[in-house]
Amino acid sequence: MKEFTIGKNDAGQRLDRWLAKTMPLLPAPLAQKYIRLKRVKVNGKGSKRDVRLQLGDVLQLYINDEFFERPTPENAFLSLYQTKLNILYEDEHIMLLDKRPGMVVHPDETERVNTLLTHIQAYLYQKKEWSPYWENSFAPALCNRIDRNTGGIVIAAKTAEGLRIMNQKIKDRELEKSYLCVIQGKMARPEGKLENFLFKDEVKKQVYVRSKPEPGAKTAVTLYKTLCSSRGLSLVECRLITGRTHQIRAQFAAAGHPLVGDGKYGSERENKKFGRHGQALYSYKLSFHFTTDAGVLQHLDGKVFQVEDVDFVREYFPQYQVPRDTSDSTSSIS
What confidence tens digit (pLDDT) does each residue in 236-276 have? Predict the structure, then answer.
């Protein structure tokens, strides 16, 4: 419990507004809940949120200590009361989440609170499965990342053991990620392989496709299959053999068929024709094929997870039904 005495600078304020100023990490809905539960007392008694504080009033706050801290990137999760997560799968060690386009995965200079990782931290904190205030606490971490405007499956580790094993499985390529994308036009071959070299410009945050090896360029291999075509567009399924930055976007653009909505590798003039902002790209399916022991994650071997919906499939190909994987699928596009 912490106690405050109202001075002349705070006199006349509403109780809920004083709480918001004094405790910026405390979400407004949670503050209102604490007032209703009388965990916020004015002069020893419960109060209403719109009461005007008077000079000399004594406030007693029965609220967790962490909400009194100064806001920092490390405790941003405390300010989230309602988490926005589409959880495909969860166990003791990992979570699989369907990240929607528009959300960044990690806090950065443009967004610190409304990120996938921050929502995961808030979710686990509210479930009392994790807290940074516990001794030797492990911080939830992401095993893979997806661009802001790309949607799809992201793997989050809830334990150090889960993170270690999953990172090794990703490194050993014992996971298979499949993407859906909409490209402009049709590929010359409806099914095939894109293989070249990608050079990343760290300053421009952009990659360039090279047909031959050169210093700094890395091999990039993508398998693709055209699922259907209509009105000058094609729905394509891709499977990554390598996982380079912007691999699918850059390779299809270099092949003369940029992704619809891709402002970095495509044409804004062409994108306006289709009314889309942000690349039509979704990491829609994830398969686990372990060739070595996976310890506490062994139960995932042979499992296939698919997202339930991809907006651009409905928008551009409303009659098309993405087939469901029949091996050991848990969820599919409807």
Answer: 999 999 989 999 999 999 999 999 999 999 988 888 888 88
Task: Supply the angle between the helices 28-36 and 15-22 in degrees, to the nearest 10.
Answer: 130
pLDDT in tens, 83-110: 999 999 999 999 999 999 999 998 877 7
Q: Name the β-bridge partners of 115.
A: 104
Adjacent-strand bridge partners of 305: 286
Amino acid identity of residue 197, one-letter, is F
Location of structure tokens 């939830």: 140
**Nearby residues of 174 by Cβ (< 8 Å), 6 or more positions away:** 288, 289, 290, 291, 292
| Torsion angle defined by CA atoms of residues 116, 120, 122 and 126, in that order, rounded to the nearest 10 degrees | 150
State the Cα–Cα distance between residues 118 and 105, nearest whole angstrom: 8
Helix (H, G, I), strand (E, B) or coil at 87: strand
pTM for the whole thing? Answer: 0.85
3-state DSSP assignment of residue 320: coil
